[in-house]
Automatic annotation (TrEMBL):
Residues 1-133 form the UspA domain. Transmembrane segments: none annotated. The lineage of its organism: Bacteria, Bacillati, Cyanobacteriota, Cyanophyceae, Acaryochloridales. This is TRAP-T-associated universal stress protein TeaD. Belongs to the universal stress protein A family. It holds the Pfam family Usp. Gene3D superfamilies: HUPs. InterPro entries: Rossmann-like_a/b/a_fold (IPR014729), Universal_stress_UspA (IPR006015), UspA (IPR006016). It comes from Acaryochloris thomasi RCC1774.
Length: 133
């Protein structure tokens, strides 16, 4: 069913909470897990905090270790760009069967909908998207 599973992660609690659902899905489907973190590309004068590459590598290693405790081998990917577009591009490159991601709920308002990464991924993804609230 879902043999290639893409799990985009960031430093949010929602991303961490989705990990258990991902682990269950990987085990149930005997799938291959890819953990992705996207570093937002620097924009001139951008005010938003962007984690340093070594922090992202640490995040990926922590996630990989957590899945290893569940007996799941995972491959990690670190990309730079706009998160929703990178997630969808990687899903396409991997020929992913599903993207599983956490949701902060910012897309529930008209103002937040344009900024919601999960909402953008749902609309752009080349495969099904499972959003874990």
């Amino acid at each position: 069913m879902f043999k290639t599973i893409l799990f985009p992660v960031d430093q949010s609690r929602e991303s961490q909470d989705a990990a258990e659902t991902v682990a269950k899905l990987v085990k149930f489907c005997d799938g291959r897990l890819f953990i992705l973190s996207v570093q937002v590309e620097d924009k001139a004068g951008a005010e938003e905090a962007n984690p340093a590459p070594d922090m992202i590598d640490q995040l990926l290693q922590t996630a990989k270790s957590a899945f290893a405790e569940w007996g799941i081998e995972a491959e990690t990917l670190h990309k730079e760009g706009q998160p929703a577009f990178c997630i969808c591009d990687v899903a396409d490159e991997l020929d992913a069967d599903v993207i599983v991601m956490g949701c902060r709920g910012v897309g529930l308002t008209d103002e937040g909908m344009a900024e919601s990464v999960s909402n953008r991924v749902i609309n752009l993804a080349p495969c099904p998207v499972l959003v874990v609230p």
